[in-house]
Amino acid sequence: MGFKKAIVNLMPNPLVKIFSAPYVAGTGLESGLSAAERFWDEEKLHSTIDLLGEEVYDHDEVEGVVEIYLEAVRRLQGRKYATVSLKPTQLGIFEGEGYCLENMRKIISTAGKQNLHVTIDMEDHPYADVTLRFFHELRDEFDNVGTVLQSRLFRTRDDILSLPKKPCKIRTCIGIYNEPANVALQKKSEMKEQLFENMQLLLEHGHYPEIATHDVALINRCVKFLEENKIPSNRYEFQMLMGVPRKAIQHKLLERGEIVRLYVPFAEKWKYALAYCKRRLAANPMMAAYVLKNIVGKSTGR
Ligand SMILES: Cc1cc2nc3c(=O)[nH]c(=O)nc-3n(C[C@H](O)[C@H](O)[C@H](O)COP(=O)(O)OP(=O)(O)OC[C@H]3O[C@@H](n4cnc5c(N)ncnc54)[C@H](O)[C@@H]3O)c2cc1C
Q: Of 36, 90, 122, 193, which sits with the fewest C-beta atoms within 10 Å of its C-beta?
């Protein structure tokens, strides 16, 4: 386990909640909706709104999640700057694939009536097959659904080549989950090289890549490729996480007329939000420095 991940795992939950505040819009749907509105009004940043939650095993809680998403998509009517993102393990996959698929179908069909796009997030690799099965089935029925492919996984190139023949919106990212060496690349540089290739492959096959990275060099490399190949800016977009400090590159992209979309998560029950918050904290390069500063500060009485 990495140093940062070990530190984050040792943190008491209230501290996780405090430190991860920049990555989360707040508590309750209203916080997600108003953050998205603010990003749009103030900076012309698009959003994808997400109810934080994964591994929800309780039937009533799953029903509650569905209700919140239905309310979210109704409230987002006419707000062209927003989409929503959701996860299979918060929508009842533990009760059976049929139940989970039905829950997704309800949300996607309601969203479709409001011209609102829905992304099915990709969780760790044991869920890749079922998530893609859901995506294929739902894409067959609806135009307003996309999913995510993680460039670290060896399978991803084949998954791109097996996508439905209709254009698909596919978030292409390196993937946040540590995956074993038998299924995934282990070096970040290789994952990023693969992300670049996946973006090209998606475009080649008529899909719409949602280029999700905070790596400025990689973003600039993508921009150069898109420009040199005269790819119109309605064929792709850039995505970043709320809370990751990337104002300069976001504004540079916006000035070029690109779509930049932020992932805007909100919490209902914090017990379901903690896993996301811990992943974000563990990915923050300042975490180790911050913790060390506190340890040194305490030992020197500062
Ligand atoms: C919109 C969006 C949706 C995503 N959806 C999924 C998904 O469905 N499934 C999935 O597995 N992964 C998802 N991810 C996560 C993604 O796969 C990566 O893990 C994450 O974006 C970090 O990779 P990176 O390409 O930014 O490269 P990195 O090398 O990890 O990051 C580049 C630089 O960005 C900065 N940075 C990155 N993270 C943080 C942070 N938390 N705090 C402060 N600075 C940071 C650092 O300076 C770092 O050096 C999503 C990411 C985005 C942006």
A: 193
